[in-house]
Amino acid sequence: MGESSDEPSARRRTLLRSLAAGSTLASAGCLGRLRAATGWEAAAPVSLEIKSLPADADPYALRVARSAARWFRAAGLEVSVTPLAREPLYRQVLLRNDFDAFVAPLPASAHSGDGLYALLHSRFGSEPGWQNPFGYANLDVDDRLERQRTTDDATRREALAAVQRSVARTQPFSVVGFPDEIRAAGRGRFSGWHRTDFGSPLGYLGLDRPAGSGVALGTSTEPEGTDETTLRLVTTDRRPTGNLNPLAVEFRRTGVLTGLLYDPLGYETGSGDVEPWLAEGWEFVTAGAGPRARVRLRPEAVWHDGEPLTAADVAFTYALLADVTLGRDGERADASSDGDGTAAGGDGSSDGTATSDRSTDRSAGDGASADGATPVTAPRFRGRSSLVSGARAVDRRTVEIDFADCTPSVATRAFTVPVLPEHVWRERSGPASVGGVDVGSATEVLVTNNVPPVGSGPFAFQRNVPGDRLVLERFDEHFLAVDPPAGLPGGVGEFPPFDRIDVAVVGSDDTAVSMVTGGDADVTDTPVGADTIPRIGRARDVDLVVDRSATPYVVGYNTRRPPLTNPRFRNTLGHLIDQAWLAAEVFAGYARPAVSPLAGTGLVPDDLRWDEEDPVTPFIGSNGTVDAEAARSVFREAGYGYEGETLVERG
Amino acid sequence: MSLVSVLSQVAAVVVALHLLGLATVVGPRGLAAVPRRVRSNLRTVAPTLGVLVVVLAVNGVVRDVGVELSWLIGINITGAIHVLEGRFVVWIQSLASPLLTGYFSAVYVFGYAFLLTFPVVAYLSCDDARPLRTLLVAYAVNYALGLVCYVLFVSYGPRNFMPELVDSLLYTHWPQAQLLTGRVNRNTNVFPSLHTSLSVTVALVAYRYREIYPRWLLPASALSASIVVSTMYLGIHWATDVVAGALLAVLAVAVAEVVADERDPARTGRLGVAGGVRDAFSRLRK
User: Fold this and answer.
1) For the CA atoms of chain B, what is the radius of gyration?
2) Are the CB atoms for A59 and A509 separated by under 8 Å?
3) Chain B partners of A518 at a C-beta cutoff of 8 Å?
4) Contact yes or no for A83 and B78 at CB 8 A
5) Is-above-0.90 flag for pTM?
6) Which residues contact A426 (CB under 8 A, 6 or more apart)?
7) Is the CB of residue A293 less than 8 Å from the CB of residue A403?
């Protein structure tokens, strides 16, 4: 925190002054008084730094941060706001936990009942990534998060309701609201924008050609000499042009682009169910503590480099997510020889089985492995990978997955992680090095930019220009291209009507929209700010596409740092955020204020529904202006004092 | 592609302005002797030109690396600048009108490209190699020190820091311009303003050598001043960036003067850098 640097020196000065006084008076009584006085530290002002994204990267985050800063200042806190680009922000907040508070949207994975498990369970407090970046620890919440994994229906709903009530009161983060995602989409070349889920790779895969214009598609706007069709996305997020590592949390937004490159076993649909994708199907049996699933892969699956995709790759993926070192200490040599065996062995089902079995056994303990080395978990997909206790390849197309204590419907969430090729990733489990020097506990798995990526998805990497461009091309051996099966999730019927995806990076929302209205791009991949709506509305042949986002903006607090360790302090900060005003002014009405991060899932109890105002932490003040006097008295009741107008706490 | 169309627009306008400039500033009599002078001047300033080319090339390569590096070691001074100057840029934007926005946008993109390139052409065509060398050295110093600052300081401009108060006027009125400016600048590189420092550099050099091109001084100063204001008017830079940019320009021109003098075969007495800088300042004042 800001005050920590000058505080000790002030203390030292005070102490020296008292010592000087002590020496002149030099009597036992005075020393006694001095000793009694040193227990009483001077009160220090409470200061807070809010980190957020600049306007070019996010249309709302910084304005939310500055509004919150204004309200906190009105209550006497010293507040500064620091804008950071996406990657440094997420590196500092999610990987290093180096923050007091931040403003950003939560990841979409948190927007489900079990999503809260990773977001808030105290066991993840020291892990990097979107798993409990707040360092929140509440034993009651932990219990209920575990209970919702093992129960169904009313019991589960009650457990989740209790979690939401605790979270609303203790405020590890203050929910601001769910924004509308606004996009500009060209009407001429593709249709189906309005039913597209831009948060899932299935969204772009479900696009159609516009009715009756099939022939004209490949004429004017395509590169000369080809009759191929390109889906041209424009984004303000430059990260995927330089990094395509699906496990690098600081580089991923929705994971849609890496999702097009890496197939998961199944996709979550709008109803919340998981339906088979790379898997042909699965069945559950109960075995021991938790359920066990037998997953059957689709036939003839291959990686983009031509290697066959087998059950061993699936088992390997879960082992890698549980421990990116694959149990580095002790067995490196074995591991690499196993890897060679699997990669080389065309018939290698036995090879693959042995390999994965061993690596997953090690992860099964999930905390302390047999040889005492601490596993390093992957920073993404943590909630889902924590459901899996082990995975084995039974034969080339069948993998058996054991789950921790949970219901099958929760367990299927684990099928939505991207499947990674063992022959590429096994050798990345070694320590990462920069210029030949090993750095920290990071392994190459976490550090690699994974360019070019080898996936198994419907689109394969073609080329990239870091900071500028990313081009993906149709993968002809994908099941969608070879023989599209019926009944795929998300209404995907056949290969989408484009052979290439061209992602162009621009500097701001305005420029992104002008690329679409000018016919140089088909859609803004990143949502744009509400202030671009007139520009979209004026343009001919451009659709304004508005979707309710699944990711609420939050003001997240680092509960490891005083005074944010104090739930009452955080609760009072929650009272100082005027969600209704933010929704109206900052989001220009294109947001719905909310109390619970699960708003919109049907899991929110009635007493946590937004009803004109926040039912748990109503704003102290009105219409965007804090009632400073009332706010101060709340802080005083919470045990804080004021010096003049400045909020102070004893050190 | 839109970038190509933006580039060709800029190129067309700048070429037209150059022709106008050559006709009025250099004049028909000056132009007659141009081929001979250009050859001789190029020979004389070749090493300096080489240095500038190297600095620009390094700048081009390092810019992206520099941004990465500055996130590692740089200090984020956005908040400090805001505390320092408050709402000065907001006040400037309160004077905005469509006409002014059009003018300042044009000045920021077209005017800047012209202001930086025209004196190179003009001084190339004059009798004396010193103005050209001074200018090129000053450019090199600007870019070199600018790059160092960009690594040491991370800072977002007012349009990025207080979007509710400061409009991103250039990019809302002419979004395609960002396709071009995005190639040249990154939005974390606002301290100091290189638009300001290079424009002021041109104006200072124009003043220093006003006897060679008396007709250049007025348009150079006016354009330079307009560009300085435009960086703030368009919400791209803070006043702090502009002040720092102006100081950088003064330093760059002073250093360039010393270098130009030391390299000048006509001057034998060596001054040393400190004396040279003092000397340069006194000559600027005169």
Assistant:
1) 19
2) yes
3) 2, 176
4) yes
5) no
6) A316, A326, A335, A336, A338, A339, A342
7) yes
